[in-house]
């Protein structure tokens, strides 16, 4: 599965907690937890959400061959 652009609404839904997914890819899980703490602390400021959406998209792009990353992409965007 190709990694959607950082502007895709599913990224912001995941980072703001609007959607909840049990992620398998440990690095993504850790990034999402860190991002949610920052997003909550800043009141969901759009620039913070965009920053973390770009980081998360890059993380998935760099690990596109990883099975757990592929499974998580299917959960998030499926």
Describe what this molecule looks like in 3D.
Helices cover 67% and strands 0% of the residues. It is an all-alpha fold. The chain has one domain. Helix 2 (26-41) runs antiparallel to helix 3 (46-62). The model has no long low-confidence stretch (mean pLDDT 96).
Write a compact overview of the structure shown:
With 78 residues, the chain is an all-alpha fold. It has helices at 9-16, 26-41, 46-62, 67-77.
Number of helices, counting only DSSP H or I runs of 4 residues or more:
4
Estimate the global geometry from the Cα principal axes. globular
- As residue ranges, the low-confidence spans are none
The succession of helices and strands, N to C, reads HHHH
Count of extended strands: 0
In helices, the fraction of residues equals 55-70%
**Which strand-content bin applies to the residues?**
under 5%
User: Termini separation (Å)?
Assistant: 10 Å
Radius of gyration: 11 Å
Mean pLDDT, to the nearest integer, reads: 96
Please describe the biggest sheet, giving its number of strands, its sense, and whether it closes into a barrel. none
Structural classification = mainly alpha
Whole-number count of domains: 1
Features:
78 residues; mainly alpha
SSE layout:
Blueprint: H1 9-16, H2 26-41, H3 46-62, H4 67-77
